[in-house]
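pasting for ref. prot 1 ->
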Amino acid sequence: TYGDRNHKSLVQTLDEFAFALNDTLASRRGNVVIPAFAVGRTQEILYYLAELRRQGRIPAADVYVDSPMATAATRITLRHAKLPDLERVRFTESLEESMRINRVRAGAIIISASGMCEGGRIRHHLRYNLPRPECAIVFVGFQAAGTLGRRIVDGAKSVRIFREAYPVRAKLFTINGLSAHADRDALLGWIGQFRRPPRQCYVVHGEPLAAEALKNAIVDSFGWHAAAPSNGERAEL
């Protein structure tokens, strides 16, 4: 996915995240909506929100985790790890609880699935917040081509949600450093641990430019036989 680039450091990433949150929450006029996958990403975001709050880098805010699966996964996480305390966090499970969040006009951080905005409750929160210039949408993971999230990130002036068009007026932030996908150097570091090269290496994940860039880096760095096949291409193994 990130075969053609590296993530910023964690320090830089959290600086970006804090800026994105403060840009909206400090004015107390709008909400921050974070599309996040239910398992793994949501729990990581909660951890960093608690850390930033503990450090006094973001203001207090009502945090809504609106995903039954994320709620269940967080309960499991709490059995095995001590997360920093995050005041005013609410987990919603019923549809009625989820719908009540849409009445909140300002001061809330809303974390909801799915991460690429293709399904789940996040689409409802986008309906209510995406058209509002005082709100912000913070993307914390890769948005694949063809997804609603990607159309928003790529600068669409309006998007269709539930067959209705909504203008994109909210501020947009993309924090790639919070993605769970390894970056270019991490991938090359993993490859560098092989004791002997494979007969052939295929880069079969990621969009064409990123896959081609990683293939070239593998060839240049290790001298492997590598290819980034196009969709539908066949090869004898």
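and prot 2 ->
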Amino acid sequence: MSLSTLDAVQSTTSPRIEAPGIGYALREQNRYVLNDPAINAVEITFERADDPLRIDRYLGEQEFEHVGIHALKLSVASPDAPGHNYLDTLLAIAEENEAESISDHLGFTRDGHNGVEMGHFAPPPFTPAALDVTCRNIDFVQTFFARRERRFYIENIAYLFRFEGTLTEADFLWRVLKNTGCGWLLDVTNVYANAVNFGFDPYDFIAEVMPAADRVQLHLAGGFFDEQAGMYIDSHSEPIPEPVWDLYRHALDQGRRKIDTVFLERDQNYPDERGWRREIRQVRAIAEETCCPR
């Protein structure tokens, strides 16, 4: 069989895997580079777009193949389900910007619907009782968004403490994904941070959880090791470190055909134009090399 014939057979029996959408979490500081050819996706943080003084579409005239909305206060591990006012406004921002997905964090920011916001994410106790509450709230959220055909993703968080529990984090997350069918927003840097801080293998974590997810998005960011605290901090303030790049490659390999989009986050110490473009192009190059080898 000639090489050309072999290539034709392989192309019909093994469809080429497309690279995921690649883009930034939108900040005013990177808006001017969003026309880079490496970028075909964007993530909007809901709390930034939900500005009562803003009257224009948050994305303006720009169009992207993939748009995601990232929320901060659904607090799905709280005892109460999220309030309808928050959900209504979140959905309105998604519709205005033609977003296909909505995401939030696997944790809680308050003890109940009317509770005081803590200003940060706390992990749920990894217990069967917390699992039941979390799955119930995610089902509620998914039912709400499904009416407008928006897919919901849950993000694993970085944390500096853990409550006592009877399940591992990987087992808890696996069960959440299996029980609810929601997508997984795999924050690669958060997995790395928790692995450094609590002494587990991040590669095993991703390999264990990935089979439970039908659809996956990725977050990448840079942080730093705080010598005084003795912990790695997911600060979104630094370039992506080499161990996270390596873990990103592993996540892409484990999630073949499942990964929709990859979003790069940066919230402090913003790079210059060359820095913005270099890092996003590296994200794309690794995705294409891993998902679509020649």
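Confidence is low (pLDDT under 50) at residues 1-14.
Residues 218 and 262 are 5 Å apart (CA to CA).
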